């Protein structure tokens, strides 16, 4: 079936003509990316302006926004994966949602190209552009990495890692080959920032909890390894709290290699820069992010790290500070000046992305009502991390350091309030209550990742067609005489 763009959207030519001949009655704001920035900008703008004042279009290949700070807990099974995402069509009332990837941006012509998962790419036009395309994993050309490792940036990856870890334990319990067991029960995480440490700690916690139910697997057979290039972990908190976390993880027998790099992992044979070698079936890469590379396919000004350059009003600016009319950017893909730390940029985290999104929604509403946009200013409130059930670390307002159970409670409280939509907040809290009463759910659903495997195996191959005498047998390269099919 031929695919056509939704009715609210014009093709480049017709839209361009319409713009020249007759200005749009309602200005159109196109938001690239329906993640933290996209979701909060769209919601705030819709709240501020009625449908007759602005048409809002959000473009994202996924039908939902992911609240990434909850991914480690989703991987540990403490939160239902469906509850760490907010579906666009439900959360974005009064907003048009287009499912597809932005593949080019021609801001000079006020057009963007959208490539849907199926069908031909098409262009849409706009009057105002918001770029909230986020980041992707920053990888390195390490032999074996692309083939063996998995990222931890979205809900699909988090759930795949959970199922894989639990599935390895299941498989190890059914084999007596010591080398195979060692390999299956070795889990390597590369990157000691927040995402890596939380993912590792949550998965180690659930793996140990799970192993209690196995007679054939001993706790000390589980080997969790963290590889970090710098001399410390959790650069987001003070050295003291980073040191405390390190100590806690080591007490849990987690092996930590600091000032160490992954050199190679061909076929799961991990080689570290210190010469340490080990075999692992699970390698999770969480060593940093970079701005979404699709921005290279745009005419927007980018800095050396590929981020869109903005001023503190979140307007896109050229290197000399000249404002690029009608373009705004925020979040992981933007270099937004941090007014509390002159000369620096806001760090790529949800704390900023969420507030920048709200601020951008307010600013756009002001601009569309012919007022001046205001500057975004936010003092970091701190960082909270969960390290497994009832364990955590937190640093609030730079000074207050919290450890253990209170930090874990703080982590859950802070993030559940930041999670968009009341519906999601309630579902998450209901899930936590259920887990406290009924214990955690640890069943691996490995087959989710290849649901057709069993059906494929059960399928009967089609019977070969009987080739009539003298007819050319299509299964044979040249002409042949007919054989009776059995
Ligand atoms: C595991 C993990 C844990 C984290 N923990 C914390 C934490 O505890 N605290 C904290 O403050 N921050 C945390 N972060 C960071 C935080 O989640 C991000 O900084 C924040 O989500 C950035 O928001 P964003 O809107 O810029 O990007 P995102 O929220 O990533 O949104 C980008 C959107 O763009 C879409 N997109 C991508 N490519 C295209 C395309 N070509 N066309 C259209 N759309 C596209 C994506 O699908 C996505 O919806 C964590 C991140 C991870 C991965």
Automatic annotation (TrEMBL):
Keywords on this record?
Answer: FAD, Flavoprotein, NAD, Oxidoreductase
Q: Does the keyword NAD apply?
A: yes
Q: Which Pfam families match?
A: Pyr_redox_2 (PF07992)
Which GO terms label this protein's molecular function in UniProt?
A: NADH dehydrogenase activity
SUPFAM superfamilies reported in the protein's UniProt record: FAD/NAD(P)-binding domain (SSF51905)
Domain called FAD/NAD(P)-binding: residue spans: 28-357
| Amino acid composition bias (Basic and acidic residues), ranges on this chain | 465-474
Region (Disordered) location = 456-486
Q: Which family does it belong to?
A: Belongs to the NADH dehydrogenase family.
Name of this chain's protein: NADH dehydrogenase
UniProt organism field: Cellulomonas composti
Q: Which gene encodes it?
A: ndh
